[in-house]
Amino acid sequence: EVQLVESGGDLVRPGGSLRLSCAVSGASVTSAYMSWARQAPGKGLEWLAHLYGDGSANYANSVRARFIISRDTAKNILYLEMNNLKPEDTAIYYCARALSIRGPGTQVTVSS
User: Fold this and answer.
1) Are 90 and 106 in contact (CB under 8 A)?
2) How many Cβ atoms from other residues are within 10 Å of residue 34's Cβ?
3) Cα distance between residue 112 and residue 62, in whole Å
4) 103: pLDDT confidence band, cut at 50, 70 and 90?
């Protein structure tokens, strides 16, 4: 059974940075494309970034140039580096494998 566990969420000031982690077990982090998504209060799920087996990635317009998706194949962990955070980035962040979200998410709050 594939399990995904997100961590790294925190309260951060506008303009700050965070790095989220997603520990993958039961499958390799390269065996399917991996993604990050978020859900803000009262809003639907927003897909943010996808990382493919060949290492290529694509991003939603809302986070392009601010967020970076990456992976550590030795540790089997997916990352999301978030820079220049804005209050509208406040949400629960989830990782997904082949668009399947399996973890509880991690809360990111951007506030002064």
Assistant:
1) no
2) 27
3) 21
4) confident
